[in-house]
UniProtKB/TrEMBL annotation:
Belongs to the glycosyl hydrolase 2 family. Residues 691-746 form the DUF4982 domain. One of its GO terms (biological process) is carbohydrate metabolic process. SUPFAM superfamilies: (Trans)glycosidases, beta-Galactosidase/glucuronidase domain, Galactose-binding domain-like. Residues 763-854 form the Glycoside hydrolase family domain. One of its GO terms (molecular function) is hydrolase activity, hydrolyzing O-glycosyl compounds. The keyword Hydrolase applies. This is Glycoside hydrolase family 2 protein. PANTHER family: BETA-GALACTOSIDASE, BETA-MANNOSIDASE. It comes from Microbacterium rhizomatis.
Amino acid sequence: MNLPHSGGFCATVFKTATHGYFRRDVEEDVVPSEQIAVAEVESRDDSRRAPGRVLFNDGWGFRNKVTAFQELGGSVASGWNNVHLPHDALIAQPRRADFPRGEMNGYFAGGVFEYRKTYRASTEDSGRRILLEFDGVYRDAAIYVNGSLAGQRAFGYSRFAVRIDPFLVFDAENEIRVECRTHLDSRWYAGAGIYRDVHLVVKDAGHIVRDAVRVTSPTVEHDAAVVEVIADIENAGPLTKTYRVDVLILDPEGAIVGTGSSPVTLLPGTRATARQRLFLDNPALWSVDAPNLHDVLLTLRDGERVVDEESTVVGIRSLQLDPRHGLRINGEIVKLRGACIHLDNGPLGAVSMRAAEERKVARLKDAGFNAIRSSHCPMSTALLDACDRLGMLVMDETFDVWTSGKSDYDYSFDFPEWWERDVEALVAKDFNHPSVIFYSIGNEIPETGTPIGSTWGRRLAEKVRSLDPTRFVTNGINPFVAMLDTIVPQMKARRDAAADTTAGGGGVNTMMAGFGQMMGHIQASDAATERTEESFAVLDVAGMNYSDARYVADRERFPDRIIVGTETWPNSIANNWALVEADPRVIGDFTWTGWDYLGETGIGAIRYADAMVEGSGFSGGFPELTAWCGDIDIIGDRRPVSFFRETVFGLRSVPYIAVQRPENHGRPIGVATPWAWSDSICSWSWPGSEGRPAVVEVYSDADEIELQLNGARLALVPVQDYRVEFDTIYQPGTLVAIAYTAGVETGRATVETDLARELSIDVEGNPVLSDGTDLAYLPITLTGGGGDQPVKLTITGPAVLQAFGSGAPVTTESFDSAIHTTFDGRALAILRPTGFGEITVTAETDGCTPATITLTAQ
């Protein structure tokens, strides 16, 4: 950016944080700068880049690492494969039934992986600071330049930068290598490798410090706002310098709505903070329903020479929190309709790309959610950008462990050394994202039940507040987990007693079925209250996992305590949401989970007694793949529980029909955890089940539901807790549910039998970008009788198959194959365009006419 100060004419191109390139033709003798006009918007993308910071994702090689010493011992290194970042090193690895505790990560074996890339350093950059910025590398990343170690990072989720210029040879080719490893270090599928974006950052001696532009709105009213822009400036040169910092603020349409300029003098080798307060008339405020974004552009000049530029995207909004109103945004009360989510993107694995994250956020929002909690690690920048643009509130979480480990080789060993730097990285990444309203300092940390553990919580909370006092601090505390030191011996005795009971008495299955009730009783106990009081006291909001039994009692015990359900059972939403609506101090509910995920296999599955393996419990073993507890499955299709939740939220008045699979009618259930929903789908096509019993579920907020089959009334039943069940006999035809309130019809839903065998393929959004940064999503549907079967894809044109999969919670198929079996008639192909032109995709399966679709990459 080059703001004018003396005569002449210039044309300057500004590269903004999310809105691409803005070209401005500027009369240099026009001062003040408020009169600068935006002449043309050339393009808009979502890269959150600035001059001197460019994507560094292409041209990488990847392989399973073998050291030179291992090769001397006879090991053979695999060949290098070309990959385009972001890349998940684990998702295409073979799954192993014998992998220890494989149920935690979906039976993907760990390993050591390495990436390499050649970079030609220009002589023009000699003397400048050159950094590689990684948005996330899982895990134990080590970065080498020309064989020398340039930097490391233990945590797999932090954004970090490594300075590489001391190791470069200029005007020559330089080899960059990144190593990482994973093995029994996570309770869920975390992937591996460079699974988020990489940027190359080049800075002059005088520069705006990376990740040190902070924008706040200390005063926000509907007709005015004060915006404070803060930037750290560094002079790494040998002379004292007086720089000038210029600031522009652009509204959502690209018009200039605020400008400022100030000098800053720095001695050699020092930093200073430049701070400007700008007044905006009638600002476009950011909210869930109107996610208005502003570009903030900064230029650092040494005289007339531009030495650095930075940009960021912000939303102007206010946050308030008190026990009388709960949470307010821009003065309006907001109840959090929340979803916990893991980091993976289903068939893509842990890869985080703009298109994937936008699709996820859009579908969660369409399902009725207005907030997401990152479980249990910091979000990617791409996901935060999507939440900003689409209007999704965020609780960004730091850690799943502190000093007490939950997996054999997890972060707990690194936590004492690295926690402070990782908290700093989280806040630096999140600070300018308006979607972020909470920082969570942990999840189900056992130490929260001890005095020493509480000192860790206080240390973390105050560290966050010192870095960002504008947001609220919480912690996903589970009093049950906080008391594990006393509960585990009791549970062991209970298991031993259960093992001695007969099958008819229930045994371990009965114990697991009552797990939620048992946990709730412990959560609300006086012992739990005493053990967790200090850990809750260090927070702005008491985050409670599965602790709805505490909500009412805590009104009396802690009248100023503000509560959020940071993690709740999916089948408890009707009761939980009533508690949220009844008490302003309970500001929301986050279900486990909004989106299904890889790993923690089968925690939400219905397990029938006649198919259970002895000793099985939460997991049924290989080849289970997903947790199967999400409102939305791993390819983005909504499950019945999602429509039930939308009804409870008051966002849906049309009834929804779900049918329990007739082939399972009458089978005794062995285990159904509190994360499970009924084994049902929205379908009335059950060939082979004619004349057999069927259970029909209808979700509605009406008083009564009438069920009709082929025009005949089956029953009229009162609705209780938004749900009613009908026992009927399956016959093909048309099933209709009619909702009545006060005797007046308020809506109806229809499901029809469809036995016509047909394969179809569609595309979500067309055209797509051709530069390797975009994805094309192609839903595939197989209708009619005959069940699920494999579908084969053929792709022609400039694209690669990034992933192909279904929502199946149990499968042996790989996501990197061009053949995948549908699940409940659905599958999803994900393509990454690699150049300009038309892309044709053909899907084939036995017994159906092939389906073909053409899309354009541009």
